[in-house]
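Readers of this paper often ask what the protein records in our data store actually look like. Such a record has a labelled line for the sequence and another for the backbone structure tokens. Nothing more is needed to write down the fold, since each code stands for a local backbone conformation. The record that follows is passed on verbatim for readers who wish to inspect the format.
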Amino acid sequence: MGMNENFLLDSWEESKYDDSIEGFRKMIERMDEGTKYIKTQLNRVDVLHVMNNQDEENPGSLRFFRFGPPTEEGCANVHVGGFTQKSLLEKGAEELVTEAKRSNNTIFRLMGKTYFTDYYAFRTLAQILERGKEFLEPRFSRDYAMSIDMHGNTYGTKEVTFVVRKAGDLSKVYAVHSGQYVPVKQAALLEICDKLSEYFGKVKMNWWQINHQFSTAILTFPEKAEEIADFYKLPDKFVPGVRICISDTGRSSLTIEGNWQVAQNSYNRTKKVSKKHAGKNDEKTLVQDLLIEAEQQIFSEFAALPKQLSILLNINVSDPVAAIEETVKKLGMGHEKQLGIKITKKIKEQLIASLNPNLYYTAYDITMMFLSLPSCIYGLKESALEKLERLVSKVPWLDVYAATDNDDDILIVS
């Protein structure tokens, strides 16, 4: 089943919770089916810039400036052109035309074909043309200068790889990589899923999300969780798993990251291994090498967390408030590169307020309060939540507690 025009919009995204791996598989296969990689030289690409003033009587048409090869003086030849309403609407491009007028003002022409562009395609092209952040902003001057660069002596003969997605007769560029880019199909994630089933038995798909920037999924291993529960007898359920990710638009390498599901929907991130889409290795070799590293650095340590928690379960804490404060301090949670002072203050206050003065606490209890934070804190940006998930995974191994003369009691190191 093919994709419709909406698939090509920058905002397109699909995601599901508690889905089957087969549901994820079908969507990944559709992504691969709609993606192709085009190798070309930059000087073979014509740049069109969509005009601000359009023909209001023909909303399906599209007027643009076309930049030709630069003159001897280094200036671009600028021509006025346009696509007719019939030529675009017959292909079903109404939404793409609206998007091009509103935000994505750049269109590429290559070998007689028209390619709309994704906003983030210029993040990768900027690296090739050695441009800064200002290159992301779509405007006439950006496209004018870009055309001169793409047809000039310095960059014109550079080989590049266009990452293109298709829907019917429509095409759109989502990334422009160097000629050394090694295409890795989204199906690499499916191969990882299949291999994980061989390692851990049943694999549960907790969540997946696919858009033009990333394809990612959280997988857990319930049979491994049962082994842990039977052996360590911990009060709470801990389910090991991984977060897998791929991006063919330059936003991420092929990645496997260790992941623990704690309590209900709280996730803690552990070690991460990744492989870049470059070099001489093919897709199959990249996946094999990645799984070997994951086995050495992630899977081999699945027993470490429950073992450490079983130790903390037997440590009594005399001052839980001090334990929370010391843990926050040792995590460096308030650092500006982490969560910052304001968010950290709220988290610390929330943790202290949740303490019951009539209860005794163990180091395990304090640790669980931190491990459960990702599902208890609302309103965080995605980047901040990711930092929190990584931070709290360190808590079980922090040197926070010190024994007193009484082996049954523990004081907080101040």
